[in-house]
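cron nightly-structures :: item 1 of 1
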Amino acid sequence: MVTPSRITLARKRRGLTLAELSELAGVSLQSLSNYETGRTAPRRTTVARLADALGFPEDFFTGQEIDELPVEGISWRARSKTSARTLDAARAAGTLAALLYDWIEERFRLPIADIPSLGKPDPETAADMVRTRWGLGSAPAPNMVHLLEAHGVRVFSLAPDYAEVDAFAVWRGRTPFVFLSTLKSAERSRFDAAHELGHLVMHGSDRACSGPEAERQANDFASAFLMPAASVLGHMPAAAHVDQIIKGKAIWNVSAMALTYRMHDLGLLTDWQYRSACIELSERGYRRSEPEGMKKRETSQVLTKVFQGLRSTGIKPAAVAAEVGLAVDEMNKMLFGLTITMVDGGGQRAESESRRTLSLVP
């Protein structure tokens, strides 16, 4: 029996309108509309045509009903003119990742969410409170993806199909999710992770999580979380030159632009010095890529351990994808490409907190 919501979700994931899918699959527009509303059910041969057009296994369309991630609870880190269709496609990709997460949660004991709700303090204070709660002090933040996962955030990569969307975060029930693009530099992706943490902490379901003010608050939170005031004031000189900024950014694994902003915020750069530094960084072409950057992108430790654990019991990624009802390529786009690494026998060392809390459910 075909589940109507799954046809809709798959169509949104591919960024198609009803008319476009109708033409692509050779199915009439009226019939397609009826399938998605559940008024009629497609025949087996029609399901095969839809599956082929959408790039999903036929089994996907006969699974249980899927609740899409809530629109109103998502904080988008995306270009202001990003179309609703693109955002729908990214949300659909996130919903599929949540589907994979449900499958994993039935088999593994994952870290419990430890994200405080801090709507009242200013971003600087909120960042300091989270750092204190997590025992970070004023030291540079470690791997942000590992840190989020250790505190119960489910982190997946965004499919590279939509370059306009950098990241987004959302609460699904009591479980926080963060989705990160892999198209940005490692430093900017790390900042995005901290930015989305700011949304999760400061902008719950009862507070606005979108709009310029919410974005400014999340940016200020990320800046303070990654570059604590005491640490920056202790390492960076006042009126630093651009070359000093580029050298200093490695301390916190942030971009030169982010450090320049933070130094201005902390009074280490005057307004004129800040503008001059931004202009010079831009003229050097450092707005998108910079020298002396991080050598490796921060990726998921939990997903690595999950698939290593599965492999040790003889379960391969293709079998997981089949059980969830996804194509292997579709699933791999959610996993920072980690399944390829694991096939080659690679992987990353786990942090102590995740080692204690991640285990197979007996």
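cron nightly-structures :: done
The beta strands are 75-78, 108-109, 154-157, 165-172, 175-180, 359-360.
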